[in-house]
Design a protein that fits this description.
Layout (H helix, E strand, L loop, with lengths): L1 H12 L4 E11 L7 E8 L6 E8 L6 E8 L5 E3 L9 E5 L3 E6 L2 H19 L4 E3 L3 H6 L25 H13 L7 H25 L1 H69 L4 H9 L5 H19 L10 H34 L18 H7 L3 H10 L1 H45 L6 H12 L9 H6 L6 H4 L13 H37 L18 H14 L3 H15 L3 H19 L4 H45 L1
Parallel strand pairs: 5-8
Antiparallel strand pairs: 1-2, 1-7, 2-3, 3-4, 5-6, 6-7
Helix pairs in contact: 7-8, 7-9, 8-9, 8-11, 9-12, 11-12, 12-16, 12-17, 12-18, 13-20, 16-17, 16-19, 18-20, 19-20
GO molecular function: phosphatidylinositol-4,5-bisphosphate binding
Keywords: Cell membrane, Coiled coil, Cytoplasm, Exocytosis, Membrane, Phosphoprotein, Protein transport, Transport
Function: Component of the exocyst complex involved in the docking of exocytic vesicles with fusion sites on the plasma membrane.
């Protein structure tokens, strides 16, 4: 077993810096006998780790290898099975119970004794030993110690201590000097003892001989102590001086810190003052422009715009915490409020005067254009007012009530102006349409009988097998036919006169078409210009977004505001258009076809510009009326054609009877 222990120490445990303290040859209980070794080891480095290692001999050679390793602190119980009888079986309780059978009871007891020693030294009796005789445990305690092993010398528990490298070298050199050291250990030990006695005697004699030097040394030590006392006194005085200097330096440091804090506070205060001065101050020129600036000249307007923008920035500046409690800031804010109210009042009065003057201005009415079908242009007014667009935006952001009041004033007075102009414009259009109708009637008076053309067109329709063919003029002439007696006139009347009624109708309708087109062409730019002006002047336009094709996308709320203002300004357009359409339809029901074509084209154009605009909505409503009139015309024409066809067939039958 000693050779095996030496081999295991050399091959397995020494390379891992471990020492083998106990070993037992075991096999598992109840199974086929396969011998292995349980080894109790400790590490050579601190902290010491105690382990139980299972080592097995390799099947393919004469060498050993580790198989399992347990920490001793994980061992909870050692069961020797029987304390009174010899029994090689024992159990080790780790995470589970391992049952072993030792090769002999002596090896088992030796291994359990080793485990008990390691437990006493490193684990402080943590492991519980069951069915182990007290005699075995008492024999494990070295003689001369008390029964309480925990209070004894721990070094006595360690039966093996490895020599250090230097100790080994010294012993080897000493043994080389004595050739018989290996063969005769007693002689070698006796020689060492004699040499030790000689050295002790020499040391005593050396001490006795050096008494004089000792006295001298003691005297020197006394002098050194005196010098030390002197130095300590000087050091104490120096320490007091340094303490005074330290206190002075602390005061200076405190003063410097206070000065630094004061400088930092002064810098912060200066930054706050600069912030207030830079962002909450208006120049004298800006204040003068707000209080009494000229709102009629371009330079005065530009100065007012700059001053109002600066005022708005000062009023909207984000104050830092605590600024609003400063008296100067409160006074400056009150000054801004007074300047804002003063300038808003001046601007509102000035623009009100402009709106009222324009609303009562008679120079732009149609009185000077009695013979021309042209609407007055308001581009000069728009150009003059657009100079105030930025001021209106400022007023919208600062005084919403005054902004809304100006919007209502503008709509009120401009609606009166446009109502007069549009009314005069449509009166001229109606006069021109009525004049066209009277002229046509004068031409028709030169014809012998109007019914001749009616009969001619009706006969041409009769040969079409009941289908609606022929010119649109002939269809319309059927709607103005007379009684059945007119249809029975002789066909010889067709040759009378120099001009047919159909040709006269085409000329009149062409002239009506031109008048109606001119009316729509005058209204469309007027509405678009006014809508564009409202968006720019009252800042109702939204930021543009580009989309294929390029389109202006306006927010629904602002579109509604523009449409609402346009409805109030041009509230008479739809009524006048419906009146004009009714007049044209009354003059000639076939005019509805011309009006339908023109209205469809203008509605399509307006929807391409802005589908939700006032112009598009108004023209769309009027287009519905035109379509209804056209439907009525077609229904009436079809009814008249059917009646005429029945009358012609009756006359033809009577003529056949006469012949």
């Amino acid at each position: 077993m000693t050779a095996i222990k030496h081999a295991l120490q050399r091959d397995i445990f020494t390379p891992n810096d471990e020492r083998l303290l106990g070993i037992v040859n075991v096999c598992k209980a109840g199974k086929k006998k396969k011998n292995c070794f349980l080894c109790a080891t400790v590490t050579t480095e601190r902290p010491v780790q105690v382990k139980v290692v299972k080592v097995k001999k390799s099947d393919k050679g004469d060498f050993y290898k580790r198989q399992l390793t347990w920490e001793l602190r994980d061992l909870t119980e050692v069961d020797a099975k029987d304390a009174s009888k010899e029994n090689p079986e024992f159990d080790l309780h780790f995470e589970k119970v391992y049952r072993w059978v030792a090769s002999s009871t002596a090896e088992k007891n030796s291994f359990i004794s080793c485990i008990w020693k390691l437990n006493q030294r490193y684990l402080r009796k943590k492991v519980e030993f069951v069915n182990v005789s007290s005699q075995l445990l008492e024999e494990s305690v070295p003689s001369g110690e008390s029964q309480s092993v925990a209070g004894g010398d721990e070094d006595a528990l360690d039966d093996y201590q490895e020599l250090s490298t230097r100790e080994e070298q010294d012993i080897e050199s000493m043994m080389e000097m004595c050739e018989y050291a290996v063969s005769n250990a007693e002689a070698f030990a006796e020689k060492l003892f004699k040499e030790l006695q000689v050295l002790d005697g020499a040391n005593i004699q050396s001490i006795m001989a050096s008494e004089k030097q000792v006295n001298i040394l003691m005297q020197l030590l006394d002098e050194a102590l005196t010098e030390v006392d002197t130095i300590e006194g000087k050091l104490s005085s120096y320490e007091e001086m340094l303490q005074s200097v330290k206190e002075q330096m602390d005061q200076i440091s405190q003063s410097n810190r206070l000065i630094q804090i004061s400088n930092t506070n002064n810098g912060k205060l200066l930054n706050e003052i600069q912030f207030i001065v830079n962002y909450m101050d208006l120049s004298k020129g800006q204040i003068r422009a707000l209080q009494e600036g000229d709102l009629t000249s371009p330079k005065g307007i530009e100065a007012c715009i700059n001053a109002s923008e600066a005022l708005l920035q000062c009023m909207n500046v984000a104050l830092r915490p605590g600024h609003e409690k400063l008296m100067a800031v409160k006074q400056q804010q009150q000054l801004f409020v007074d300047l804002r109210d003063t300038f808003a009042r001046r601007l509102t009065n000035h623009l009100n005067n402009l709106f009222v003057h324009q609303g009562y201005d008679q120079s732009s009415t149609l009185s000077q254009h009695q013979t021309e079908l042209v609407l007055p242009k308001h581009s000069p007014l728009h150009r003059d007012l657009l100079r105030y667009a930025k001021l209106m935006d400022w007023l919208k952001n600062t005084h919403r009530e005054k902004y809304d009041g100006l919007s209502r004033t503008y709509v009120d007075y401009m609606s009166r102006l446009y109502e007069r102009e549009i009314k005069d414009f449509f009166e001229i259009a109606k006069i021109k349409m009525a004049g066209t109708s009277k002229e046509a009637k004068g031409k028709f008076a030169t014809l012998p009988r109007k019914e001749s053309a009616l009969k001619q067109e009706t006969e041409s329709l009769h040969g079409s097998s009941g289908k609606l063919t022929g010119s649109t003029s002939s269809l319309n002439k059927l709607t103005v036919q007379g009684s059945n007696s007119r249809r029975s006139q002789s066909s010889s009347l067709l040759d009378m006169g120099n001009m047919s009624a159909s040709d006269l109708d085409v000329a009149d309708r062409t002239k009506f078409d031109k008048i109606f087109e001119q009316v729509l062409s005058e209204l469309e730019p007027l509405c678009l210009a006014e809508q564009d002006f409202l968006s720019k002047f009252f800042k109702l336009q939204q930021h543009m977004t580009v989309a294929p094709p390029l389109a202006q996308v306006t927010s629904p709320i602002r579109k509604d505001m523009v449409r609402h203002m346009m409805n109030k300004i041009f509230q008479s357009i739809e009524t006048e258009l419906n009146s004009l359409i009714a007049l044209g339809d009354k003059i000639d029901s076939f005019h509805s076809l011309y009006m339908l074509v023109k209205m469809s084209h203008h509605v399509w154009t307006a929807e391409n510009v802005d589908p939700a605009s006032f112009l598009s909505t108004t023209l769309g409503n009027v287009l519905v009326t035109v379509k209804r009139n056209f439907d009525k015309c077609i229904v009436s024409t079809i009814r008249m054609i059917r009646q005429d066809n029945r009358g012609l067939l009756l006359n033809f039958a009577k003529s056949c009877c006469l012949f």
